[in-house]
Design brief:
alpha/beta, two-stranded antiparallel sheet, Amidase signature (AS) enzymes, single chain, 17 helices, eleven-stranded mixed beta sheet
């Protein structure tokens, strides 16, 4: 794969500062010549192999050495594509690439599938100079295959493990989250349908944005449903998150959701980083009316930081449950129809063309292809909805969830909503609203938790500002202690 192995002494010297270094520092040292993209590739590929027991990474890019060399040559020639030039990154394995890597969604049936073209965001990342190291493990079919499997399990990649201990990795973007949290890569991209960015971000002590639906293109990503699917950036800090979002966000002529007239494309997402952004804001902390003592303690810890930053905090509670029955129907419809449309759209020859064929393939060897079953796939295939009925359901669930979030803001007369972890995912994700989680601390047993801010559509920049202010005040993130050190 590459021709330069680091000596144990070289790797140990880099371990002292590199695994969790901010992207701006990496870029400075690349520019000074202290680092090269090839050296970074060698180092992080070595860490991926060293901590293979985390099962975070499913496949490495066989062309990474050549690409890294090209990026180094461009830098020496005075050409920089942007702040991610030469910075290693991993993509969740439901994001198509047109190189020699596979796009599997963790499924046995797609083990040898090469999509034949980059997803739109993969194109943008390459154009920005990001060095794609490989693909991350995930909950198979983005966690919509079976109701009995564990978060972070796929038949191809096995079980993703939380670097902080024997804790749930949460959500389907677990491999991407663990890879960044464990210092296997500086940045990663995940996807969310309902909680799959925010949940693993919070569970692994990361800064993660679930963007407004339409801020980031979905073209070339294996779907659950176009109604709520989106990709999003995963990083160690809000500053790094902003740099990654800069390379991902933007209009795609083939994804109509990105062409909404109210969308604004800032020149620089990093310009919203403001350590004083919480001062004078009124925030609504959404939690159960009578939270358990352990949860109440976490709420109070976050509230103290928010108030120290100059924010007012009022406490709110939801009144209307998310319409889960209709939500599941919308997801099932997407797995039946949007998945088939994906296979029809890729230039590479796909081993299957429909959900029915996937189910048949798995049934031929369930112990090795679907050891936890495939009840959600079967439920999706059995669903009988017309396109008009589906459109009406999609409109209903968006309206109900969006109305509840707007009611909370109106009732509390607040600027933004905040919550713990992904407790509001059933609302913001279904409504298409943005959410950003940032490390807030650790429970008594050591499991990370996050403070999650929720805005209305296209308030992503406002979330970045507020999350940065909280992050700078809390300084909550502590790197995990990995076996063997570093």
């Amino acid at each position: 794969m590459f021709s330069q192995e680091l000596s144990p002494e070289q790797a140990a010297a880099l371990d002292a500062w590199l695994p969790w270094a901010p992207v701006t520092l990496l870029q400075q040292r690349l520019q000074s010549g202290e680092l090269t993209s090839r050296l970074l590739a060698s180092y992080f590929l070595g860490r991926i192999r060293r901590y293979a027991q985390l099962n975070a990474v499913g496949e490495l890019n066989p062309d990474v050495w050549e690409v890294a060399g090209q990026l180094d040559d461009e830098r020496r020639a005075g050409t920089l594509r942007g702040p991610l030039h030469g910075i290693p990154i991993l993509l969740k394995d439901n994001i198509s690439t047109g190189d020699r890597m596979h796009t599997t969604a963790g499924a046995k049936v797609l083990e040898h599938f090469q999509a034949g073209a980059d997803a739109f965001i993969a194109q943008k990342l390459r154009a920005a100079g990001a060095l794609i190291l490989g693909k991350t493990n995930l909950s198979e079919w983005a966690n919509f295959m079976t109701s009995t499997s564990a978060n972070g399990f796929s038949v191809l990649g096995g079980q993703v493990r939380n670097p902080y201990g024997k804790f749930d990795v949460s959500g389907s973007s677990s491999g991407s989250a663990v890879a960044v949290s464990a210092g296997l890569v500086p940045l990663a991209v995940g996807t969310e349908t309902c909680g799959s960015l925010i949940a693993p971000g919070a569970a692994n002590s990361l800064a993660v944005l679930k963007p407004t639906l339409g801020l980031v293109s979905r073209r070339g990503i294996i779907p659950i449903t176009a109604v709520t699917d989106t990709a999003g950036p995963m990083a160690l800090s809000v500053a790094d998150l902003a740099l990654l979002l800069q390379a991902m966000a933007g209009p795609d002529p083939e994804d109509l959701a990105t062409l909404q007239p109210q969308a604004e494309w800032p020149v620089d997402w990093s310009s919203f980083l403001d350590a004083d952004a919480l001062r004078g804001l009124r925030l609504g902390f959404v939690s159960p009316r009578k939270p358990r003592p352990a949860k109440q303690d976490l709420i109070e810890r976050c509230t103290l930081v928010l108030r120290a930053c100059g924010a007012q905090v009022v406490h709110l509670a939801t009144r209307r449950a998310a319409p889960w029955k209709q939500v599941i129907q919308v997801f099932c419809y997407g797995m039946q129809h949007d998945l088939a449309a994906y296979f029809q759209s890729v230039p590479g020859p796909a081993p299957v063309s429909s959900l029915a064929e996937i189910i048949t393939f798995n049934n031929a060897d369930l112990p090795n292809r679907a050891p936890f079953g495939q009840d959600l796939l079967e439920r999706s295939q059995a669903l009988s909805l017309t396109s008009a009925e589906h459109a009406a359901l999609a409109e209903k669930i968006r309206a109900v969830t969006g109305a509840e979030l707007r009611r909370l803001r109106r009732e509390g007369q607040v600027d933004l909503l905040v919550s713990l972890d992904n407790s509001l995912a059933g609302y913001y994700a279904i409504a298409g609203y943005p959410a950003l989680t940032v490390p807030a601390g650790y429970r008594k047993a050591g499991k990370p938790f996050g403070l999650t801010l929720v805005g209305e559509p296209y308030e992503d920049s406002r979330l970045i500002a507020a999350a940065y202010a909280f992050e700078q005040a809390a300084r909550a993130r502590v790197a995990p202690v990995l076996p063997g050190g570093a």
